[in-house]
Specification:
It is built from 11 helices and no strands. The protein has 277 residues and is mostly helical.
């Protein structure tokens, strides 16, 4: 009897139509896919997130690289001082007799021009520096027309020095040492101009005068003179051939201060940032 029932069940299963078998198989497949789908969705989501993160990181890194592209020293100076003088010139436009504004305009244009001259490497940079220094002189002249200042006269002479006009710088500083013989920075910078022109003996005399005029180093002239004299003594202690070579180079340079003007820094508070922004 049991065998007959088994046979009947088997026969009933065998008698299922193809359509019914297909429906059952499809249902089983859908059930399996429904179980796998959450896992697949999670994997795809994670992959997409990683891809997006990578793209974002790449874009950010690219933008960061563009933003952090190193500017030249001249460009840094243009950014900094351009903003400073723009603000001051607005004040100057409303009151051209304000001494503080005139002085700051002169100082900022001088610092800007000297910086460009110091770090510039092209003819365009030189032209740019000279134009800035010309503006500094213009404002200094306006200031001096209203108030005498030995410090401003030193700065004005140094503007000529950085414009490679050694003759003008020398004459201005000589006149200042005559009118203000106790002003140390005038002697110190006169020594620099003499040194730059190759006149070592006159440079030493001027530096010695700077030490005498500023014995307490109130203006820094004493220290500056000592450093320059030490440098000169060190140069003279080299062998005779090196000394002859240095003398020849200095003589060919003459009073134009061609090489020294871009490498030697004058004594002035205005030039305090010349070594880097």
């Amino acid at each position: 009897m049991a065998q007959q029932n088994t046979k009947k069940s088997t026969n009933k299963a065998d008698n299922l139509g193809i359509g019914a078998k297909f429906v059952i198989a499809l249902f089983a497949l859908l059930m399996a896919f429904s179980l796998v789908l959450p896992m697949l969705s999670s994997v795809l989501s994670s992959t997409k997130s990683t891809s997006t993160s990578t793209d974002t990181t790449t874009d950010t890194s690219s933008e960061s690289a563009d933003d952090s592209e190193e500017k030249t020293e001249v460009e840094k100076a243009d950014d900094k001082y351009g903003a400073l003088v723009s603000s001051l010139e607005e004040k100057y436009a409303s009151d051209s007799t304000n001494l503080a504004t005139l002085l700051n305009l002169g100082k900022d244009y001088m610092a800007w021009g000297a910086y460009v001259r110091y770090y510039g490497s092209t003819d365009s940079d030189t032209t740019h520096a000279n134009e800035l220094l010309d503006k500094a002189v213009t404002y200094y002249d306006e200031y001096l027309a209203q108030r005498e200042s030995s410090a401003v006269r030193v700065d004005k002479a140094l503007c000529a020095y950085y414009q490679e006009d050694g003759t003008s710088a020398l004459n201005q500083l000589k006149a200042l040492t005559e009118s203000a013989p106790d002003y140390g920075p005038a002697w110190a910078n006169l020594g620099l101009v003499y040194e730059s022109s190759g006149d070592t003996d006159s440079a030493k005399e001027a530096y010695a005068k700077a030490e005498e005029a500023d014995p307490n180093d109130e203006y820094g002239a004493k220290t500056y003179a000592e450093q320059r004299l030490s440098s000169l003594d060190s140069s003279e202690s080299t062998d005779e051939s090196s000394s002859d070579s240095a003398t020849s180079t200095s003589t060919s340079t003459g009073s134009s201060t061609t090489s020294s003007s871009s490498t030697s820094q004058g004594l002035s508070d205005t030039l305090s940032e010349l070594n880097g922004l």
